Fold this protein.
Amino acid sequence: MPFDSRALDRIKRRMPCELLVRQHWHSGRVLDLSARGLFVQTNAKPRPRERVELRIACDGTEALQLFVEVARLKRVPPSLLCVAGGGIGVRIVIAPEEYFQFLCRLVPPEQQAPLVFAAEPGEGPRFRVRVREIGGSRSRRIEVSASDREAARGRALEEIGEGWKILDVEELRPPATDRAPGDEL
């Protein structure tokens, strides 16, 4: 039976944020968030699949910087924004470790479900790559599709740009539901 897996891990939380769309900052309000993405109420008009920078203050701390990709648009006339809640659904491309720690504080451990990532058609295996800023203290987690770990390292460095080093690479595998206990992966 099909279901919307996005609904399972969403946390409803109203938080102010800022988005950098094509060199212009826009204000917004996060309405729900998860480890995979967020829904942001805003009057910014990014294009589908466009990558934007998102700044969000979690627990009154210094703003966290996330890089996201627009997955869906919900457009409403500006006069109805406060009533209809238009905005954008975004997929997280790069997020600091502090963002995931914040999510863990919002959801009790017994309610936390493991993340299952479905491969897009024609996509290779998914990898989570942890990187750290060279000469700095910032770290990020990036999810990429690649043929193997070495290709995932290269793809992650290509996505994030110069000034970062790879800490580790982890292959993400969906749980095996059709295997008997003891079967090899």
